[in-house]
Write a structure and sequence with these properties.
single chain, 342 residues, Rossmann fold, globular, binds pyridoxal-5'-phosphate, TrpB-like_PALP, cysteine synthase, Cys_Synth/Cystath_Beta-Synth, transferase, EC 2.5.1.47
């Protein structure tokens, strides 16, 4: 597998060519980002936690931003007089969903390489917008889907591999869009702490770069699944993990973090069960639906906030809304835990 970063950016990809060839993208762009930064339950007498609510994006997750950026960048680089543009990427699910919808809107074929453990509902949705789907055994997630994506691109060069794990457009989108929004929304204040889950590491690295501009002392704590943490020497495994994030296994580290961040961040390990229970608890407390990685981030942000003073702010990001089935599972586990503790 190739692990080299490429395509350095010092701004968001230009949208001019994309909008002129596919004017329907302007509507998506208008509803992309500018998500609310909400105040969320925080430890008493300690720092306050704020979260960017990314489920408000047009296709329901933070990945809509990156998919849009990668999409425009691929359009900018493609010579349409030489043939059609066909896009391929490996994904845990949210990127596949966003790319498939964008492709469908523009008549651009999209091939998604996803783990075989994704929900039936997502597979149905991908099929309904004509995505080509390749599934990979979840026992090899995350590395397995990345390797398969590179293999497909190698065997059939008509597919353009977007490579969200290595393409620095991903980091740029979070630095110049997500991070810039947070800086504006803090209204002259600065973040003292920043928490994100690491899938590609684009969110963590990009937003860190933006927030450090206002506070070079920014404390960073990342969420990682307990079942296969970032940098783990263990082999990939089929244990359930909170979605959207994960270590590679075999000691490999996400290149955006390993090569791009000035120092390796600290990691907080959150188990699948803890994340699912926290999804339910958060919904009970606020009435707001958040997904497993968001719930893991809430727990991690809470931990960081406990080390800080009441005048300080910890910012995090809630990537998606999760499913009602997961919240129901969280309710069951929450009640079982309560019973066993009494
Ligand atoms: C639900 C969810 N949470 C977190 C992440 C991690 O984001 P990043 O890839 O920027 O590290 C993703 C990415 O796919 C995701 O889908």
């Amino acid at each position: 597998m190739n692990f080299e970063l490429f395509n350095p950016q010092d701004n968001l990809p230009n949208t001019e060519k994309a909008f002129s060839l596919f004017p329907q993208l302007e509507e998506v762009y208008a509803s992309l980002g500018n998500t609310p930064l909400i105040s969320v339950p925080s430890p008493e007498g300690k720092a306050s936690i704020f979260a960017k609510l990314e489920s408000e994006n047009p296709f329901g997750s933070v990945k809509d931003r990156v998919a849009f950026g990668l999409f425009c960048d691929a359009i900018n680089k493609h010579d349409f007089s030489q043939g059609e543009l066909k896009l391929l990427d490996a994904s845990g699910g949210n990127m596949a969903k966003a790319l498939a919808h964008l492709g469908y809107m523009c008549g651009i074929p999209v091939h998604a390489v996803i783990p075989d453990a994704v929900s039936e509902k997502l597979v149905e949705e991908l099929k309904s917008v004509n995505a080509v789907i390749t599934t990979v055994d979840y026992n090899f997630f995350l590395l397995g889907v990345l390797a398969r994506g590179q293999e497909i691109a190698h065997d059939d060069s008509s597919w353009t591999l977007l490579s969200q794990q290595l393409n620095l457009v991903n980091v740029a989108v979070h630095q110049y869009q997500t991070g810039a929004e947070i800086r504006r929304q803090l209204n002259g204040a600065h973040a003292d702490g920043w928490v994100a889950a690491v899938g590609t590491g684009g969110t963590l690295a990009g937003v860190s770069a933006a927030l450090r501009q206002d506070n070079p002392q920014l404390k960073i704590l990342a969420s990682t699944p307990k079942e296969l943490p970032y940098g783990s020497l263990a082999a990939p495994n089929g244990k359930k993990k909170f979605a959207g994030a994960g270590g590679f296994g075999w000691g490999l580290r996400q290149p955006f973090i390993n090569k791009f961040m000035p120092e390796e961040p600290s990691f907080n390990q959150v188990s699948y069960e803890e994340a699912i229970i926290a999804m339910y608890e958060f919904f009970q407390l606020t009435g707001i639906k958040i997904g497993p990685s968001a719930a893991a981030n809430w727990k991690t942000a809470w931990k960081l906030a406990e080390t800080m003073t009441p005048d300080q702010k910890v910012v995090t990001l809630f990537a998606d809304a999760g499913t009602d089935d997961e919240r129901e599972q969280g309710r069951e586990w929450f009640n079982q835990l309560k019973t066993s503790n009494t």
